[in-house]
Design a protein that fits this description.
By secondary structure, the chain is α+β, with helices and mostly antiparallel strands. The protein has 2 domains: about 5-185, 2-Layer Sandwich (BirA Bifunctional Protein, domain 2); about 200-240, no CATH class. The chain has 5 helices and 12 strands. The protein has helices at about 20-25, 75-90, 145-150, 160-175, 190-195; strands spanning about 10, 35-40, 60-65, 70, 95-100, 105, 110-120, 125-135, 200-205, 210-215, 220-225, 235-240. Strands 1, 2, 3, 4, 5, 6, 7 and 8 form an 8-stranded mixed sheet that branches. A 4-stranded antiparallel sheet has the order 9-10-11-12, with no helix packed on it. The model has no long low-confidence stretch (mean pLDDT about 90).
Length: about 250
Amino acid sequence: MVAEADFAVAVYESLPSTNQQAWDAIAQGAKPGTVIIAKQQTAGRGQWGRQWSSPAGGLYLSVILAPDFPVNCGYQLTLATAWGIATALGDRGIPVKLKWHNDLILLGRKLGGILTETKVRHEKIVRAVVGVGINWANPVPPTGIGLQSFLSQQALASIDCLETLAAVTLQGMISGYKFCSPTGMDALLPSYHKLFVNMGQRITVEGHNGVVVGISDRGELRVRLDTRSSNFSPASVICLPPGAVSLGYDG
């Protein structure tokens, strides 16, 4: 397990991708706890192969971990670190919520996201890179929000610069990482659900209407289907893997 004192931080003016730089560092012998930070990315990566826009002014950070978990536990790394970051920011008066399965939400808009990549050997995750992008003073799309502009409207700014944001983010990531376990994420779920912005959201799954009722202990989205729009029993709850549905944004 990585502790905060174990961090070895490298900061770059610009990188194609902090995650890729972290994998390159692993190939050169970098140890767990190595942190890669870039002031901008020219080829940032998002979920499902999407490009992550990473102009100057945002926080772009990747951490090397050595979980030694079964391969089917990799989902925990994203959910637990997202929860840890949201909690760390919440402790500073910033009401960050969680959108399944890898987004940080502030006032209904996207504040940041997480991309976890793993290396597997003999059905075990032997290395992982967890990348985080958080909007600070960079341009954001209509569905996004910058933390600096949010804090400028508060009576007291609890984070005053990117360096402080990076420190708080790392603190949160390691706090969340401590909840990861080969036996599942049962211990984390109650706290995760308190920040889960999609709870109660109505969605449509393959033409069937339903309502989001939580996250499973395997990191799946739990949806209770309406019996009037399906052939399932009244208590039917289905579990959807990441990427199965899009939950959208407010505004």
